[in-house]
From TrEMBL:
Keywords: DNA damage, DNA repair, Hydrolase, Membrane, Metal-binding, Transmembrane, Transmembrane helix, Zinc. The chain crosses the membrane at residues 160-178. Hydrolysis of the deoxyribose N-glycosidic bond to excise 3-methyladenine from the damaged DNA polymer formed by alkylation lesions. Zn(2+) binds at C10, H23, H181, C185. GO terms for molecular function: DNA-3-methyladenine glycosylase activity; metal ion binding. This is DNA-3-methyladenine glycosylase I. It catalyses: Hydrolysis of alkylated DNA, releasing 3-methyladenine. GO terms for biological process: base-excision repair. Its EC number is 3.2.2.20.
């Protein structure tokens, strides 16, 4: 929504241009590409305990350091590569999170083999139809839901790491499986 030449966005966006660009161009827009889905799954895991703006500001570094999120390459990272990542100041240097990327890449490939693609798997939880919420205030937006609980539980059962329900809900929002743009946001779907 635009009022008096002021674009109305969701309340979490703030003034940072990186946030505005991410909100306007990506957040809540349906993603069906397995490469992009993997990137968001990994970035959301790295975000745990940090602010999303921290991750967005390091996103290009993450892409460079993790071979553009090529999960096939990542699945076979050596211990030396993991050691190098721990020294990489351009990313979040958390040993468990870095190790989880390799495990998650391996499990991601297993899901692709079972379902044909990760896209088929993740979108099956909503029968291919995004959930479009109609929140009037950012305070109404939950941190997790029954859906994120269900997906988190299934991913954990499959061996994924850093896929708790809050992380998964943020992932679902990021890739447009759930659209949580508030009703007066210009990105809101009427």
């Amino acid at each position: 929504m635009v009022t008096n030449n002021i674009i109305k966005r969701c309340g979490w966006v703030g003034k940072d241009e990186i946030y505005k660009k991410y909100h306007d161009e990506e957040w809540g827009k349906p993603v069906y590409d397995d490469n992009i889905l993997f990137e968001f799954l990994i970035l959301e895991g790295f975000q745990a305990g940090l602010s999303w703006i921290t991750i967005l500001k390091k996103r290009e570094n993450f892409r460079k350091s993790f071979d553009n999120f090529d999960y096939k390459k990542i699945a076979s990272y050596s211990q030396q590569k993991l050691n190098d990542l721990l020294l990489d100041e351009g990313i979040v240097r958390n040993k468990l999170k870095i190790q989880s990327v390799v495990v998650n890449a391996q499990k991601y490939i297993e899901i692709q083999m079972e379902f044909g693609s990760f896209c088929n798997y993740i979108w099956s939880f909503v029968n291919g139809n995004p959930i479009i919420n109609k929140w009037s205030n950012i305070k109404e937006v939950p941190a997790s839901t029954e859906l994120s609980d269900k997906i988190s539980k299934d991913l954990k059962k499959r061996g994924f790491k850093f896929v708790g329900t809050t992380i998964i809900y943020a992932f679902l929002q990021a890739v447009g499986i759930v659209n949580d743009h508030i009703t007066d946001c210009f990105c809101s779907i009427s």
